[in-house]
UniProtKB/TrEMBL annotation:
Keyword annotations of the record: Cell membrane, G-protein coupled receptor, Membrane, Receptor, Transducer, Transmembrane, Transmembrane helix
Name of this chain's protein: Trace amine-associated receptor 13c-like
Subcellular location: Cell membrane
Source species: Parambassis ranga (Indian glassy fish)
A GO CC term assigned to this protein in UniProt: plasma membrane
Length: 326
């Protein structure tokens, strides 16, 4: 009987202070670990392909793809952090309290930067569809890079300040050994909720409602030949509309994956994030980072072509960065 109880502890040698494991049948545990590890590996691999594609091929150096590159970078790191979430599936944290605090802070920063990038993508599509004549003057590569940089710096500063207490005194909120708990005070939690969820989601939804209203009106105009446009203008409009639909799918999938986590936060009585008890919604949150490059593969021919060039090592050929893939 004692052996059974010890098997249920994260640290059997610490009988009085160890946390208890979440006990599952062995076969189910193995299946969960294999599945989540595969998702983590796929997430890292696919987003690395996105990063290499946009960074290497000069033809892909445009404002929209710079935003996709930022999203790919954040998704890549999310894939790496997913390994720590897998560790917590059984409710045990086997690393130090300092690593726990660092993991949660990095998780906050990276996911916040990802959400901020989604907002930038929505703004980019809004300007491209609703003000196409001034798009190239308003949205430039330089401005896109500045916005992405500010997004990452803002995410890092905001969450480093919000979680500074946990960084200064890691592990002080743990109730037992083997727990990874981070506490955010009420005001900090409210600020984080507004900055990381309510504000961005509101902006994204409002902009995309406007974008798709314009897309529908443009589609009707083109079908009825009301708008007297040249063939080149028509192709340009179709290209922008296709890009808006594709990135719209990215945004919708993003909202589906992210909303459950923040809904759990909203319904909580305290601004308390216990990673072990929110494993499911966190895994769904992380799953979004795996789905984004799959969406690119389905809708973007240039991504499929660049994958082929990368896998076959043709990008190592001198001058390959000038290859036409669009």
């Amino acid at each position: 009987m004692n052996t059974l109880e010890e098997d249920e502890l994260c640290f059997p040698q610490l009988l009085n202070s160890s946390c208890r494991k979440i006990v599952r049948p062995h076969a189910i545990s193995i299946l969960i670990y294999i599945t989540l590890s595969a998702i983590s590996l796929i997430t890292v691999t696919l987003n690395l392909l996105v990063i290499i594609s946009i960074s290497h091929f000069k033809q892909l150096h445009n404002p929209t793809n710079i935003l996709l590159l930022s999203l790919g970078v954040s998704d890549f790191f999310v894939g790496l952090l997913f390994l720590f979430q897998i560790m917590l599936i059984d409710g045990c944290w086997f690393l130090s309290d300092q690593m726990c605090a660092l993991y949660v802070v990095l998780d906050y920063i990276i996911t916040s930067a990802s959400i901020g990038t989604m907002v930038l993508i929505s703004v980019d599509r809004y300007v491209a569809i609703c003000d196409p004549l001034h798009y190239h003057s308003k949205v430039t590569e330089k401005r896109a890079k500045i916005c992405v940089t500010m997004c990452w710096i803002g995410a890092a500063l905001c969450h480093s300040l919000l979680l500074r207490g946990n960084l200064q005194h890691p592990g002080r909120y743990n109730s037992c050994s083997g727990e990874c708990v981070v506490v955010v005070d009420y005001i900090g939690g409210f600020i984080d909720l507004c900055v990381s969820f309510i504000g961005p989601v509101t902006v994204i939804v409002v902009l995309y409602v406007r974008v798709f209203a314009v897309v529908v009106s443009q589609a009707r105009a083109m079908r009825s030949h009301i708008a007297a446009v040249t063939l080149q203008d028509s192709l340009s409009v179709k290209s922008e509309m296709k890009a808006a639909r594709t990135l719209g799918v990215v945004v919708v999938v993003f909202l589906i994956c992210v909303c459950p986590y923040f809904c759990v936060t909203l319904t909580g009585h305290e601004s308390l994030v216990n990673v072990s008890t929110t494993a499911f919604v966190m895994c769904l949150f992380y799953l979004n980072s795996c789905l984004n490059p799959l969406i690119y593969a389905l809708f973007y021919p240039w991504f499929r072509k660049s994958i082929k060039l990368i896998v076959t090592l043709q990008i190592l050929v001198p001058g390959s960065c000038e290859t036409s893939i669009v």
